[in-house]
DNA sequence: AGCATAAATAATAA
DNA sequence: TTATTATTTATGCT
């Protein structure tokens, strides 16, 4: 799948600078990806290389895992759940804890066959149950997931021009302030700390985007 | 720019049963939203208030629109498309232009019934077509989505023998130059940076194909 | 009606 | 895993 290809491409040392245009086409070749980089090979790399399957993976149906991963994502989205929610819910209910990253990596098959094999039934069971609750109404699903039923998106903050000026002056001096510094800036401007933190994140993004354009223009 | 990126997830004819889902879209409580804010009421606000429907909206099936909006989102995600991609594709193909914001607002029903009524068939038609192309392979879908059919393939670059010699000498020293180095080489040879980057990609590919060994092991 | 950008989510690095 | 970046979605403005 494209998903798998993308992962592979990104991990492959062959790729210089992951150019979005390259990624989106799915034109990269999974076969290009070396699986012997001193790490364990991932499902996404192995699934297209049945011949090279190393010892110890005979019992694992990689194709089945890939199918499930693909399906899992769609079903998760159909339920309107985020990777974070799934991870947190699993952590709450089951033995092992799963982070958002873990779910992300499973969906992208950026995971060893052994781990995938272990995780798959857990996800399968949980998802089926979530769908079951969802049938009875979204409220039940949210309870099952453990989220606050009506967690609303935060209202978009408007910064005053004065505040933006101050923020920019700080940004010029240091685009990556420490947590301590963020706290102080937030206090000075009398804004929420989190809001200030996000402002710096987005500001970095913007700068990066614009400067990238400039680079291409050169 | 980098809009149409990695998340080209999960293709394949996986049909999603239109289940009572709770995408974020539907998760908010429309009934809680006040209608009278001095603005025109939105579909999401009206759909649960059939009694209060104002004049001029008799001919519009709000429930149907809500169903479609919900479904549209799921189908869009199943195709692995972003709102941005949809908006851009629609803009490219049809008469009126649609921004990412427009798609977002349609999915959230944050749109007047009249606008929704107008947009719905457009989206319906486009999505069906997109799914059709997807059936034939993700590549077709991406062409359809990104598709300026008029956009011509870049003309194949001819390197002079001298340039190739220089490139090869660089390649021998370092098969995987950094972005900075590529830029410098391109400037020295007076070729397009992208062309040089691709040359290195292709050169590595060639080497790999012929040598069968992984030269790029870190 | 849509740009600019804040907020949220997904992906990657550490 | 946690921390951060990259990408997508949502929304205040006008």
Give a short overview.
2 copies of one chain form a homodimer. Chain A has 11 helices and no strands.
Key words describing this protein structure:
homodimer; 218 residues; 0% strand; disordered N terminus
Commentary on this structure:
Two copies of one chain form a homodimer. In chain A, helix 5 packs across helix 6. By secondary structure, chain A is mainly alpha-helical. The first copy, chain A, has helices at about 1-10, 20-25, 45, 60-80, 85-95, 100-105, 115-135, 140-145, 160-175, 180-190, 195-215. Chain A starts with a helix and ends with a helix. Chain A contains eleven helices and no strands. Mean pLDDT of chain A is about 70; it is low at about 1-40, about 50-55 and about 210-218. Chains A and B meet through helix 1, helix 2, helix 4, helix 7 and helix 8 of A and helix 1, helix 3, helix 7, helix 9 and helix 10 of B. The structure holds a DNA duplex (14 and 14 nucleotides).
């Amino acid at each position: 799948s494209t998903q798998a290809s993308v992962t592979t491409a990104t991990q492959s040392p062959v790729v210089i600078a992951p150019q979005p245009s390259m990624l989106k086409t799915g034109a990269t070749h999974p076969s290009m990806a070396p699986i012997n980089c001193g790490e364990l090979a991932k499902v996404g790399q192995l699934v297209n290389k049945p011949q090279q399957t190393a010892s110890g993976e005979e019992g694992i149906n990689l194709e089945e895992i890939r199918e499930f991963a693909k399906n899992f994502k769609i079903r998760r989205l159909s339920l309107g759940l985020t990777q974070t929610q799934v991870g947190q819910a699993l952590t709450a209910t089951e033995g092992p804890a799963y982070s958002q990253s873990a779910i992300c990596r499973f969906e992208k098959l950026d995971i060893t066959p052994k781990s995938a094999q272990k995780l798959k039934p857990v996800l399968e069971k949980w998802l089926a149950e979530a769908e079951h609750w969802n049938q009875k109404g979204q409220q039940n699903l949210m309870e099952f997931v453990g989220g606050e039923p009506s967690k609303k998106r935060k209202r978009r903050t408007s910064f005053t021009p004065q505040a933006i000026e101050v923020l920019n002056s700080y940004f010029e001096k240091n685009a990556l302030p420490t947590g301590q510094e963020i706290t102080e800036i937030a206090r000075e401007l009398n804004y929420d700390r989190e809001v200030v933190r996000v402002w710096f994140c987005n500001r970095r993004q913007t700068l990066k985007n614009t400067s990238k354009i400039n680079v291409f223009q050169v």
